[in-house]
Write the structure tokens for this entry.
Amino acid sequence: MKKILGVGTALVDIIAQVDEDVITKLGLNKGSMSLIEEKQIPKIREYFNNPTITSGGSVCNTIHELNNSSHQASFFGKVNDDDYGKAFLSDMENAKILFLGIKEKNSLPTGCCNILVTKDGERTMATHIGIGSQLNVKDITKEKFEGMDHVYMEAYLWDHDLTKAALKKVGEFSKELKFELSFSLSDPFCVMRNRSELENFISDSVDLVFCNLDEAREFSQSEHMSDIAQYFQHLNKKFVMTSGKDGGYFFHGDKVEHEPSKIIENLIDTTGAGDNFAAGFLDKYLLNSPVKEALEYGHQKAALVIQQIGSRIKHSQ
């Protein structure tokens, strides 16, 4: 059993199925995440009918699923002492996930992610990060990271100066405390906004990177798989890349492994597919299982979550 800590944005997910034209009306990028202001939320919610509400955030979703493994998973983020914050913490407690983050009174609310799911199963996210943008270096104390075997973080936090500095602090702790650090590239637009800084951070501090094909293309500035593989080889880090129906890939140095995914006929909602893939991969990876086994288990987790509404796999009690 390994101790893994997820550092990410604490969000409440509000998920609803909408018609295709709603995405256009709201000016959102289909299939991606857009940062929004709090004043934009009511307009988006006008199109929501009987939404599903749960605690969320990319890293939190991964930690939530890892909590169903043999590993000890905990989460670090920032919430306000408001209704959404209390709901988030209550959900963590019910799932028996240790919350090592920060709760405080603040003028900024606990963040929320408005997730619009179209009939093709694609999810589009409009996120108000709220108090999550105030996660800062002072919040990152050494005792929270002592004894950890692995820490998993998200590039979504790189869009804010305070949270960026906090991630860099975790990177410093990874060397001092000698835990392994993994990092999700999160979204192609996030990579586009921060590419050079992310490249430097990964080169300096990160051991294992998760991404999908679109993020890999943006990060490597390449369209073809051979060029992407060459770029990853140049960085000399471990990269795990999902590529939709084409399956998953693992790159490390000149080593490349591929595991095809199964065709899913009952695609309902792709929310959380990458998050749960990461959970499945990390579960086996932390047990030192073969890479192909870790990729296959990642596919199994992703396949389960995309056949339901929401980012959390519904396990039988």
